[in-house]
Amino acid sequence: MGLICFIPHTEIAPNPAHGDAALKKINDRHSGTMFSSKEYPYYDIEDFSSLKIYTVKDHTQLIHPENGLGSKQHPKLTKKVGTHEKLWQRFKAVIPEPIREDVKEFEIFTDGHGEYYGYVSPLNFIQTQWRLSFDIQDFTYDKKLFYYGIIHESAHLIGFDDSQHNDTAKSYCTNYQILERCANDNSYTQLFYEQFWTKEMVEEAYTYAYDSVENRSYASTKNFVTPYAMNNVDEDFAESFSYFIFSKRPTDLKKIKHQKIEFFYQFEELIKLRNELLHNIERDYR
Fold it and tell me: Residue 120 pairs with which residues in a beta bridge?
């Protein structure tokens, strides 16, 4: 889909103030920022449960629903097809078609409140088709979390898009590897990696993938917008992108985490995208 240039360049530079105006309306209407502070009730489900998987037709319509492996354990959540459809329709209302056109499956799952809110996963080896998965309990419990979550997952769709990587063999790839694929020189993720990460940091992130991020030598609240961003380059990219969408442009760039938000402002197409996303959320979030 070519996300580097999916919004045509014009001679008129995009104005971040347009997005800021929409963000102010959202924050004023919904009492504060879009960063959720709601506490979750702790009745977590220990195991991940896939409830329902839909095929996405023409990147618009959900068809051919099939029960997931966890549907028998959670029949009430599985049968809430109206809620499944509503979550998809709200995602579609906010996220522009060029970003979601490679989403070929939509999954409803749950692992209880908290834990994982959503994720994207490749459906083929060359990573041109994707499954988008939402936790029905998290995304219906807190609207702010829903909007933050779909922006985060959309950041992954942008970073993982097939325009961003190539099939150079792993042993020959000298760039950052996006889900086992080699990042292109001018891809968003490669540029982000070059500016904010090192090979040593990536190796440490891989080594301690299942441990607390606090145990990593590079972990610092001055360098990352959230603790979750410390997990790896892709999550750092997605969380920083989410703050780019839901925060005003930073004025103090002494902290690296503010530099990460500023990173996205060098791309006119992403400023335009920010404006569009915030206007869509302002219209949809009632």
Answer: 132
pLDDT single digits (tens) 62-110: 999 999 999 999 999 999 999 999 999 999 999 999 999 999 999 999 9
* The three-state (H, E, C) secondary structure of the chain, written as one string: CCHHHCCCCCCCCCCHHHHHHHHHHHHHHCCCCCCCCCCCCCCCCCCCEEEEEEEEECCCEEEEEEECCCCCCCHHHHCCHHHHHHHHHHHHHHCCHHHHCCEEEEEEEECCCCCCCEEEEECCCCCCCEEEEEEHHHHHHCHHHHHHHHHHHHHHHHHHCHHHEECCCHHHCCCCEECCEEECCCCHHHHHHHHHCCHHHHHHHHHCCCCCHHHCCCCCCCCCCCHHHHHCHHHHHHHHHHHHHHCCCCCCCCCHHHHHHHHHHHCHHHHHHHHHHHHHHHHHCC
Q: Are 83 and 136 a contacting pair, CB within 8 Å?
A: yes
pLDDT given for residue 102 in this prediction: 96
- Tracing tokens 């990696």 back to the chain, one arrives at 193
Place of tokens 């906010």: 94
Q: Would you say the C-alpha torsion 122, 206, 146, 154 has a positive or negative sign?
A: negative
Q: 66 is written with which tokens?
A: 């099939």
Q: Which two tokens stand for residue 180?
A: 């086992």
Distance, in Å, from the CA atom of 26 to the CA atom of 65, rounded to the nearest integer, reads 34
pLDDT digits over 218-271, tens only? 999 999 999 999 999 999 999 999 999 999 999 999 999 999 999 999 999 999
The predicted model scores a pTM of 0.92
- Minimum mean pLDDT among 81-90, 185-194, 204-213, 235-244: which range? 204-213
Output the CA torsion sign for 248, 251, 257, 261: positive
